[in-house]
Design goal:
Largest sheet: 8 strands, mixed
Helix content: 25-40%
Strand content: 15-25%
Number of strands: 18
Radius of gyration: 22 Å
Structural class: alpha+beta
Length: 373
């Protein structure tokens, strides 16, 4: 009798839950309650492809050693993953030599038709997810090769910080906003310096994104009310690939929304990426523009990015995951990613040396998901 063909499953971890899994002995993996129907399809002998969500890397392969079962104890994780299977570690990669999924672009079917943007990321947003046998075999082979021939790819430590925790409710996973200390109003005096500083930081980041897009060979757009700004003595309007008008492909309401987005990258009539920069205390304006865009154009596949200071990372993620944004299709948390100010400051000088060889998907390396684990 021919041996049954192995099934391959995506198994998502955050860096935090992966470490908890390892600390517990790496013998049991688990999933949320609403995934039970899918979990029951997992069989002994199947392989699980372990993927770290905040860094977009494969880190190991597990073999399933038991039938699915339910266990409500939290002895493994400090979150609730009661749908479980016993596993054994087939192979594991250290974090600094783990395998970026974008290195598999030429070998995985999920990248077909996704040459630009992050459309492929829709395939790595839930687990367990059954993967095609060819994709699964390719990932296993690549992980084994990475184990035999390690390549150092250090991970930015900021991306390893635990994400805000989601709470499972009848409406899905909801996050509770974190209280934030109120700041002085501008008329109180000292806060005016903060406002001026934040405005300057916002403008500087706008310039960096516009310059990067232009250097990548893309046309760029800045919010029309910011067109007369300059950064470090360089005028936005002087960039050689600055668009004077946007493609006429949207209705009036959508066009007015798009025109106010902080930075756009374009290729022909297509928007390649959209960026909202959030450096001030109130972060809703940019998120509302993004959510309005998704609501008005639900079939539009535009990679969205929220760019903010490092200390606002958790705040941004919590706000992006508010119920009002999660009811969109797709949810805002799945449609946009986070980029920190410090990441741009640190990485863009390095990228400048060979920027002419890069593609827009370099943003995957600079960004992280906004999805709450």
């Amino acid at each position: 009798m021919a041996e049954a063909k192995r099934t391959y499953w995506l198994n998502l971890f955050s860096p935090h839950t992966w470490q908890q899994f390892l600390d517990a002995g790496a013998k049991v993996t688990g999933f949320r309650t609403h995934r039970w129907k899918q979990v029951q399809r997992i069989a002994v002998g199947d392989y699980m492809l372990c993927y770290l969500t905040q860094v977009s890397r494969f880190v190991g392969v597990l073999e399933v050693m038991s039938a699915p079962y339910q266990d409500d104890s939290k002895s493994i994780w400090d979150d609730h993953f009661p749908c479980r299977v016993k596993v054994r570690m087939v192979t594991q990669l250290p974090l600094d030599t783990s395998l970026p999924i974008t290195d598999m672009r030429d070998h995985l079917s999920i990248f077909k038709g996704a040459e630009t943007g992050n459309a492929w990321s829709g395939h790595v947003r839930g687990s367990p997810t059954r993967w095609r046998a060819g994709d699964g075999e390719a990932v296993v082979a690549a992980i084994l090769d990475a184990r035999a021939h390690p390549v150092s790819r250090p991970i930015d430590q900021r991306k390893l910080k635990p994400s805000p925790k989601g709470i499972q409710t009848s409406q899905g996973v909801v996050t509770v906003p974190v209280d934030e200390p109120e700041t002085s109003t501008p008329e109180e005096g000292p806060a005016q310096t903060v406002v001026d500083s934040e405005t300057s930081a916002h403008t500087e980041i706008q310039w960096m994104l516009l310059k990067l897009g232009s250097d990548l060979g893309l046309d760029v757009w800045v919010a029309h009310n910011d067109r007369n700004r300059s950064a470090n003595g360089k005028s936005f309007a002087d960039l050689p690939r600055m668009r004077r008008e946007l493609p006429r492909q949207f209705d009036e309401a959508t066009s007015r929304t798009v025109e106010l987005i902080d930075v756009l990258w374009l290729r022909g009539h297509a928007i390649v990426a959209a960026f909202e920069i959030e450096s001030t205390t109130v972060i809703y304006s940019g998120l509302l523009r993004m959510s309005d865009l998704l609501a008005m154009q639900p079939n539009l596949n535009i990679p969205l990015y929220v760019v903010a200071p490092d200390e606002r990372r958790d705040k941004v993620k919590v706000e992006v995951n508010r119920p009002t944004f999660n009811r969109l299709s797709p949810p805002l948390s799945e449609a946009c990613r986070f980029i920190s100010f410090s990441m741009l400051h640190e990485r863009l000088p390095e990228l400048a040396r060979y920027v002419q060889y890069l593609k827009p998907d370099v943003l995957e390396e600079l960004s992280e998901p906004c999805v709450i684990d």
